[in-house]
User: Fold this.
Amino acid sequence: MASSRLSETARSNGHQADHASAQRDGSRPVALAGRALREVSQQLARRIPRADLDERDPDYIRERLPLLWLFASLWYRGEVRGLGNIPDSGPVLLVGNHSGGNMLPDTLVFTLAFSTYFGVERPFYQLAHNLVLTMPGLAWLRKFGTVAASQDNARKALRSEAALLVYPGGDYEVHRPIWERNRVDFNGRRGFLRLAIEEDVPIVPVVAIGGQETALFLSRGERLAHLLALDRIFRLKVLPISLALPWGVNVGDMLGHIPLPAKITIETLPPIYLRERFGPEPDLGAVYDHLMDVMQHTLDGLASERRLPLIG
Amino acid sequence: MRVAEAITISAPAEQVWAVVSDPECVLEFMSGVTRWEVASPNPTGLGARYRVLFRIGSAEIGGLVEVVEWAPGCDLAWTSVTGLDQRGRWRLRETGRGGTRVEVRLAYGVAGAGLTGWIAERVAKPAVSGHLRRSLRQLKRIVEYEQLREQAATHRRS
Assistant:
């Protein structure tokens, strides 16, 4: 009780201080907007579920595999190569390039392939943007092993001996314009490499093509996102603009879209054991450059195999 | 979903059996198989286990299977332990004219998958049947060629 009174007093003092400062600089609406943004941001942060690895449900996944198989086989004509490159057991960091906007066609195809190849019994988690896990109606993703993207959650998954799929490019890469569709772009993010080194787990690059042809992605809308303070509230660096079904012009892709039936091809590359290849204290820059080279080279190869957009 | 295909091979049942029951031969004649690994101390016989994967559509589907019936020259049946629910059987019967009728049966599905499982099983059926048909044709080629080779060797020796 005492603590709640204390916090109330503190809050009211804070409000008074905000109010006074707003009056002082004559920018009351700006201060109010700032407070509202902070409040919304905190509310959202509270809604992000803590990673509970036990929420992954192998039986649920198994019963959904036929649905995934139908989508992957009939709609995307998915083809996943080189799954034998993934170590048969133990923790592994699967690093993918991300495509296809919020509908994540490559994730669907890869999740199916991984789950059928290794069996649903092998623990497999995927990191997703916080906003994805706070959206109503997407709680089922957690049963598939999707957890909020954070270093803590990633560490927890790897320490449980699981395979962990990360898309370092995240929202930045997944909404890249269509003329950059055959480009791996992590926007310089290297946190996943630090994690792999600290946890001493191999990295397996997973390169996908076709996802960025499932809509006509025109712009990431970074300026728009900044202008609307989405980066501060939702950790969203982009507000993508695309032409997609059924909306026509689709801003934000918050409600998703009907993806075009583009052929998705995914190639899984041999594992990279960082300490073996780069020495006991690997240089992050060198590892990052090597990974980008390997993935881009593979993506170029996959792109050269494609004769026509969508059809593959 | 249950699929079955059959073929008559011009060779005695024990010669056909020698191929279908040998895990090292499976990759040579089974169409669509991408992995067939022994996963038990005993590579053949009752209780032998194999890790099996077939490419069907966009995925390599299968799991761990165990041999549950082992009647040399007649029947070899297996059932799934993990992965896709499946039961399969090689059924060999001599025709009486030096040949063997070989039938392969496979029942597969995902228990609990509901309507989507029902649809997926039917969509996959042509691919599964095709793999079984090609496997039987390849088995026939291997066994009959092997028989001809043995006959030729015997002829040369005599």
Remarks:
- Chain B has a mean pLDDT of 95.
